[in-house]
Amino acid sequence: MEFDRLPSKPVIKSLTSAQAEWDSWLSQNNIEFLRDRDGIDWRLIMRFNQLPSDVDRHKGKWVATVQLGVDLPVSRLVETGTLDPERDGRLINLSGEGLIPLRMKKLQYEATSEADMRDTIARVIPELLDNFRKTSLHEVKRELLGRWIDSLATFGAREEKGLEGRRGLGIDDNI
Questions:
Q1: Residue 35 bridge partners (DSSP)
Q2: Contact (Cβ atoms closer than 8 angstroms) between residue 94 and residue 145
Q3: Residue 108: which H helix or E strand, with range?
Q4: CB distance 45 to 147 below 8 Å
């Protein structure tokens, strides 16, 4: 492209085509799962939005939201050493037999241009990969499991999941 003759129309015509371009970039870089030190593959979901700038209403900003999550049975948490069958027996029983959705808090990144956002994501994703490979996430997984169990106890969700009234565990039927 010649710098004397810059395009008169935007290169990306819509947010849909921008999202398609991001998806293409992500698929080329194969960033769909992050494997932690225990061998569990966490799904990586990224969403991109273009919003008005907080500073100048005639400009915009790019916002990337990164969500990490995994659905796994409690038996997998026991296999990896996150839960101890003797010490965490009550927690294991409260978890039930199905898959447990473990979701980390969303991470948000902002940039003033698409190129800056790409640079940010190109820097952040390798850092996340490296941290997942190096760090034991046992405490994080235990906290996410506890948060999930607490959410089940809220507003009668335990009854919907079929986890209510387990006798002999010291669990109140009203939970």
A1: 41
A2: no
A3: strand 107-111
A4: no
- Give me the helices (H) in 1-100, please: 15-29, 74-79, 89-95
- C-alpha of 135 from chain center: 17
Residue 44's domain spans which residues?
15-161
Distance from the Cα of residue 143 to its chain's centroid: 15
Question: Domain for residue 113, yes or no?
Answer: yes
- Residue of 35, 103, 92 lying closest to 66 (CA atoms): 103
Q: Is residue 108 part of a domain?
A: yes
Domain membership flag for residue 157: yes
Q: What is the CA radius of gyration of the chain?
A: 22
**What is the three-class DSSP state of 77?**
helix
Give the three-class secondary structure for 73.
strand
Q: What gap in Å lies between CA 119 and CA 111, rounded to an integer?
A: 9
In a domain, 9, yes or no: no
User: What predicted TM-score, i.e. pTM, was given to this entire model?
Assistant: 0.66
* Structural domains of the chain, count: 1
The tokens for 96 are: 């039930």
Residue among 101, 106, 104 at smallest CA distance from 157: 101
Tens of pLDDT along 123-163?
Answer: 998 888 888 888 888 999 999 998 998 888 776 655 555 44
